[in-house]
Amino acid sequence: MSLSLTADTPAVPAVAVDGVWLECIECGATYAPFEDIRYTCDEDDGLLEVRYADLPTFEEFSGRGVWRYADALPLADGVTTQEGDTPLYEVPRLEADIGVETLRIKHEGMNPTGSFKDRGMTVGVAVAKELGVDRLACASTGNTSAALAAYGSRGGMETLVLLPAGKVAAGKVGQAALHDARILEVDGNFDRCLDIVQELAAMGEAYLLNSLNPFRLEGQKTIGLEILEGFRADYDAYPDRIVLPVGNAGNTSALYKAFRELVQAGALEPSEVPKLTGVQAEGAAPIVEAIENDADHVRRWDDVETRATAIRIGNPVNAPKALPGIRETGGTAVAVSDDEITAAQQALAREGIGVEPASAASVAGLRNLRAQGVVGDDERVACLTTGHLLKDPDAAAAAGNDPEPVPADTDGVLAHLQE
Ligand code: F0G
């Protein structure tokens, strides 16, 4: 099986329910969507994707937010707090500075819990309800845990989150705590947390809502659909390129799937598909390594480090979906340093857009690729910023201005300003 942009529409298997089924991306084995709980293929452990008998075109979308795209999703509605419909900001100064025809920032930090994870959870938690489970779990660098806690609570389910101790930004831990998750602090990195939670899920202890769960990625497809509709409304053309931060490569996989489905539905020409361009931090860049080496598989990095804690990930589980996405769309992957990430975070902030460090990786990566000539000056580009500034207040304070102590009287303040 290959995840080709121009794959034929698959035949509907007998296991399909209302035209929806699960399919292994490696061997093509098919499964009923909501019968048993499974995250990977029984035959070969391959990743699963949701398949549809009928794929919608743009005309079939109506309403706002993630559920505007219900016809492209496995359920008609979800456990919702009005996620999606995020801004596509203009950034004229940054656009001129980087030197591209058009630059827009799709700010996913403007979702209810402050990251794109809400799009996946509104679908994933609804599926969990459909399956009748009562306990949800995830491993997380922070944002997934915040979203799972919020949506799990809203759906009336218990949530369990496994976090790498000392490596999760303060805002995210606070969210998971207040939204009533049980927070298990693991003495290990994110990849270890994910190993453990996968084992717990396999033992039936909880329903897994990491991006290994194919239903979550369905919700995240809507980022791609919104970007296409936004560009078409403003420029009567789709973006040439979408640049995004990469950790587990869930978004990369989800956007590629959104575009494949539009091509299959006849709503998008293969030549109109934006080049998916992934950005990782230098200290956690297994996808970049695989793209640079033209490798079929990623090598697990056991030691990872970056200031962008959200993407401090050495074993991107969605690589088998994401690598074809980057390659088939003509995109690429690039690594950026922590200082480049901070510089991009500051540049976005000066445009009034507050993002957490991992989010700024997209802009840092675009700047590097433009400087290398990989991105042309005639390109229309969307950069994805994945999480809000308030997620990581310590990083914001470190990257921003220091408070200046002043006396508690006007003369004293004036004197200070005139120094
Ligand atoms: N940006 C932010 C802010 C994130 O939180 C994440 C992932 C990514 C980018 C990477 O996205 O995995 O789809 O490539 N955060 C996960 C978490 C791992 O646990 O919150 P991806």
Write up this protein.
This protein is α/β, with parallel strands linked by helices. The model has no long low-confidence stretch (mean pLDDT 97). The strands form 3 sheets. A 6-stranded mixed sheet has the order 4-5-13-10-11-12, sandwiched between helices. Strands 8-7-6-9 form a 4-stranded parallel sheet. 37% of the residues lie in helices and 15% in strands. It has helices at 92-98, 117-131, 143-154, 170-178, 190-202, 214-235, 250-265, 286-292, 319-328, 338-350, 357-371, 393-399, 410-418; strands spanning 20-24, 30-31, 48-52, 88-90, 102-107, 135-139, 158-164, 182-186, 207-208, 241-245, 275-281, 332-336, 380-385. The radius of gyration is 21 Å and the shape is globular. It has 13 helices and 13 strands. The site of ligand F0G has 22 residues, from helix 3, helix 7 and helix 11.
Lateral strand order in the biggest sheet: 4-5-13-10-11-12
Terminal Cα span = 68 Å
Percentage of residues in helical conformation: 25-40%
Largest sheet: 6 strands, mixed
- Report Rg: 21 Å
Strand content: 15-25%
Q: Summarize model confidence as the mean pLDDT.
A: 97
Q: In DSSP terms, counting alpha (H) and pi (I) runs of 4 or more, how many helices?
A: 13
